[in-house]
Amino acid sequence: MTLLTDRAVVTLSIGSTFRTMTQSALLTFLPVYLARDMGYSPFWIGAAMFALQAAGFIAAPIAGHLSDTIGRRQIVASSMAMTAVVLLAMVFAGGTIWFVALVAVLGFFLFAVRAVLQAWLLDAAPPSLGGSAIGILFGAQAAGAAIGPICAGMLADRYGIMAAFYFLAATIVVANLMIFVTPSGVVKNP
User: Fold this and answer.
1) pLDDT, tens digit (0-9, with 9 covering 90-100), for 1-35
2) What architecture does CATH give domain 18-180?
3) Which pTM does this prediction carry?
4) What is the DSSP secondary structure assignment for residue 111, as one 8-state letter?
């Protein structure tokens, strides 16, 4: 109960829920779009998904180091803002080679913040409740991973698959708004 009343834990968990909605819906609808609308073969869909994850692999240690030196909020907020910008650019570049190029850029920013969010949460939580805080965060992320694809799917069915990408941009903006209302002070209780 202590953690559920901690503003930092709650806002970071909610923000992470929306970030995970973005991620899970992207991993669901990007291959569909590449196959159906762009006519990519399974190999090229796999290559695009590889580029998305490989960029995240490169970005994660960079983001971690920067968050240790310049601050967690700055890294999370800038990465989520850039994710929204890249997602909107993907909507406008739809059907072109630029769309695929933007996939790797998206991976760099979207996947860079996972570890930083966890570190920030551990900074904010009392040391004796670190495992419980991560449990809350992962539970919130699981909820986002479950909700994201179904919401994007309903929008895609009703308005077309590009509506799913607008949804992705909207969810990452909500995630970023939660970061802005997260307290910046780190209080450690013994």
Assistant:
1) 778 878 888 999 999 999 999 999 999 999 999 99
2) Up-down Bundle (1.20)
3) 0.86
4) G
Look at residues 14, 151, 172 and name the one whose alpha carbon lies nearest to residue 84: 172
Element (H, E) at 178: helix 161-180
- Residue 159 tokens read as 């308005």
Distance of alpha carbon 91 from alpha carbon 182, whole angstroms: 30
Beta-strand runs (E) in 71-186? none
Rounded to whole angstroms, the Cα distance separating 33 from 22 reads 15
Per-residue pLDDT reduced to its tens digit, 31-67: 999 999 989 999 999 999 999 999 999 999 999 999 9
Distance CA 84, CA 141 (A): 19
